[in-house]
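dumping this here so i dont lose it
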């Protein structure tokens, strides 16, 4: 289990997730929660970017529930944002396993992102 309090970036991500959940309706998010025997196995949420594109902002699952990432993704796409033709699963953060998982969905394209800094 990953401890958010031991990693500054994970702690910041957790804070952002709480903020997003606190403002879920205001932000126009849709999402899903997958429970197994009264335990949260996975959750996800995102929003329609335009009429054809769903952006999935957060997708989390417990590794102990094999297939939970696939299941929550499937449930979201079948029950929310059903008009979406395209799905933007956001960044892979350079994590090889995450990149492979995203590639397994056979994306039309993946865009390499970078960071631009303003010169002071």
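and the seq i came up w/
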């Amino acid at each position: 289990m990953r401890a958010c309090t031991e990693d500054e970036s994970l702690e910041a991500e957790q804070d952002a997730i709480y903020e997003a959940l606190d403002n879920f309706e205001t932000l126009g998010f849709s999402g899903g929660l997958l429970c197994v025997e009264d335990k949260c196995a996975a959750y996800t949420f995102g929003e329609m970017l335009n009429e054809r594109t769903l952006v999935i902002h957060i997708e989390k699952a417990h590794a102990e529930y094999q297939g939970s990432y696939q299941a929550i993704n499937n449930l979201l796409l079948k029950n929310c944002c059903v008009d979406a033709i395209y799905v933007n699963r956001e960044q892979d953060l350079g994590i090889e396993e995450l990149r492979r998982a995203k590639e397994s969905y056979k994306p039309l394209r993946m865009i390499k992102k970078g960071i631009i800094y303003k010169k002071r």
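The domain at 28-103 is CATH 3.40.630.30 (Aminopeptidase).
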